[in-house]
Amino acid sequence: MSRTPSINRFVVFCQARTGTHLLHTSLEQHPGVRCAWEPFNDKAVHHFPYDLATPARSILRMLWREEHGVQAAGFPLHLGHGRRGRAWSEVWELLAEDSSLLRLHLYRRNLLEQLMSHALALRTGNWMEDAGQAVPQPSAVTFTLDAEYCRDWFATTAEAVLAQQRSMPGDALTITYEDLAQGLNVTLARVFRRLGVTPVVVQEKIKKQGGPANKTLENFEQLRDAFSATPWQSFFDGTNEHTWDSEIFYDSPDRRPGSPQGLWR
Q1: Which of 137, 211, 255, 262 lies deepest, with the highest CB count within 10 Å?
Q2: Rounded Cα gap, residues 34 and 63, in angstroms
Q3: 40-80 pLDDT, tens per residue?
Q4: Residue 261 — φ and ψ, nearest 5°?
Q5: pLDDT confidence tier of residue 259, bands split at 50, 70 and 90
Q6: CA separation (Å) from 66 to 121, 177, 208, 210?
Q7: pLDDT digit string (tens) for 67-118?
Q8: Whole-angstrom distance, CA of residue 125 vs CA of residue 1
Q9: Which branch of life, at top level (predicted)?
Q10: Whole-angstrom Cα Rg for the chain
């Protein structure tokens, strides 16, 4: 860009079912923040005022347009959007070249809950639920998950999260789904300060869907036994003492999980 922008531009790098909608609806409550909804999701292009042929550069220009009262503008970008030949793949190169971009990384520590949330959304067709919406509650949805599928999914997802974290600059802000769920306004205050705006109190707009793993998974006991004494055991034993992402939280090299291929698969 030829001049310093008057608004702070940001991107939230994330995956599906990691609290994206909760973060988006919370950011939108700030009068000085404009947060678009997954603008590079090619499966939702029918919601956008542009089509698949619109260049990513043009979309970014629209998203980051100046507007009276707006101090920060941005959007969530799922790690799979614009990848593997999908539309707008040039967006990743454009963002990498942007040295003034504010980068945030959002992920979910409990990968089993992330996988269950995705499986539940696929089964029900309901990808989000308004916290203030009074709707009849259907019978609890239960299902099974294959242990080998879970093992591969955990490893692949963990590798993607750690790869994204390693690519982030030193001044990037990393937050988790659990941060949002356990302390929404405390976490949002950190985010707002990173975006250069004064923190405000927000209301939780999105309701968590589904129940605990031991009530939702019909083969929970079998999975718990299958993942005993593995890096994924904490998803099943209720301790939440996760180790797969220790390099994000701890500086000591001996606390790091080691080689993903050697340890996880």
Answers
A1: 211
A2: 9
A3: 998 888 889 999 999 999 999 999 999 999 999 999 999 98
A4: -65, -40
A5: very low
A6: 36, 30, 34, 40
A7: 999 999 999 999 989 886 778 999 999 999 999 999 999 999 999 999 999 9
A8: 41
A9: Bacteria
A10: 19
Decide: residue 170, CB within 10 A, 0-12 exposed, 13-18 middle, 19+ buried. Answer: exposed
pLDDT tens per residue, range 19-34: 999 999 999 999 999 9
DSSP notation for the chain = --S--SSEEEEEEE-TTSSHHHHHHHHTTSTTEEE-S-TT-GGGGGGSSS-TTS-HHHHHHHHT---TT--EEEEEEETTTT-TT-TTTTHHHHHHT-TT-EEEEEE-S-HHHHHHHHHHHHHH-----BTT---PPPPPP-B---HHHHHHHHHHHHHHHHHHHHHS-TT-EEEEHHHHHH-HHHHHHHHHHHTTS--------BPPPS--HHHHBTTHHHHHHHTTTSTTTHHHHS-----TTHHHH---GGGS---HHHHH-
Which are the contacts of 175, defined by CB distance < 8 A and separation ≥ 6?
23, 104, 105, 106, 187, 190, 191
Reading the block at residue 211, the tokens are 């129940």
Supply the pLDDT for residue 261.
38
